[in-house]
Design brief:
Blueprint (H helix, E strand, L loop, with lengths): L1 E6 L7 H14 L3 E6 L5 H10 L6 E4 L5 H10 L21 H13 L3 E5 L23 H23 L31 H11 L3 E4 H9 L1 H7 L2 E2 L32
Parallel strand pairs: 1-2, 1-6, 3-4, 4-5
Helix pairs in contact: 2-7, 3-6
Length: 267
């Protein structure tokens, strides 16, 4: 019998430890057990990710903040300098220094390193602007204030895209066409799903050619969880069946010799 245990935090045990502890019971019954810890961004996610793929070259940026400070923190994380202490939609982009950030972007592309913003699952579809954007859903603001803030956010997002990707010819940055990470069919970067994640930090990741994904999504894709669930005789109640096409299963498993191992081979 083959059992897959995919668990999140249970009490004092993070996802990795919880999956291993549950898996021990199945291993004692003679099952070949694969254990996978799941988590949203944070310390639990970092540990689960290290256990699953310690050599992953991608650059991950946690999108867990809220409000203007989250945008400033995201811009600093990608290398933008001379940032204002407090952000507002009318911030002067020309006063910022993008040289370091653009060089990092060039290096990532040269070496095929992916930039990924990780957020909670309910943030992956969050828009920056529009009726369902950050301003549009503010119930504490009047209509005029919401419209003004929304226009400011879109103006900032377009200014950021121009600062990152527009050269002498005025061309848009790579990956900014309709249906990609840079803009939707309307041509507005604030209408891209995930652009509003982390209080607008998602728009920063997308402007620099990155993608916005949930923490669980990153772990499950790396583990090829969907296919692994199909191959398992039994899956734990916390296992997740997700909707992507995957290759051969690859994830930590508990070997009979080392019941707490999280870095062995799959079935």
């Amino acid at each position: 019998m083959r059992a897959l245990v995919a668990a999140g935090r249970i009490g004092d045990h993070d996802g990795v430890d919880a999956a291993v502890l549950i898996g021990r019971a199945w291993r004692s019954a003679g099952a070949h057990v694969a254990a996978l810890g799941l988590a949203e961004p944070g310390a639990d996610w970092a540990r689960a990710h290290r256990a699953l793929c310690p050599d992953d070259p991608a650059h991950y940026l946690s999108l867990t903040g809220h409000g203007p400070d989250a945008i400033v923190a995201a811009m600093a994380s990608v290398g933008v300098c001379n940032l204002p202490r407090h952000w507002s939609p009318t911030v002067d982009m020309s006063a910022m220094d993008f040289d370091v950030a653009l060089e990092r972007q060039r290096q990532r592309r040269a070496h095929g390193v992916e930039l990924v913003g990780i957020c909670a699952a309910d943030q992956t579809g969050q828009l920056l602007t529009g009726p369902l954007g950050l301003a549009g859903t503010r119930g504490d603001l009047g209509l005029a204030e919401r419209l003004g803030l929304d226009r400011g956010l879109e103006h900032w997002a377009q200014g950021l895209r121009a600062a990152v990707g527009s050269g002498p010819t005025g061309q848009a940055p790579a990956g900014s066409g309709p249906g990609s990470t840079g803009e939707d069919a309307s041509g507005l970067p604030g209408r891209v799903p995930g652009s509003g994640a982390g209080g607008g930090a998602g728009a920063v990741v997308q402007a620099f050619g990155g993608t916005v994904r949930s923490g669980v999504d990153v772990l499950a894709r790396a583990a090829r969880l969907e296919q692994s669930i199909a191959r398992a005789t039994w899956s734990s109640p916390r296992a997740m069946s997700l909707t992507w096409t995957t290759g051969a299963a690859r994830s930590p498993t508990m070997s009979p010799r080392s019941p707490t191992s999280t870095r062995s081979r799959w079935w």
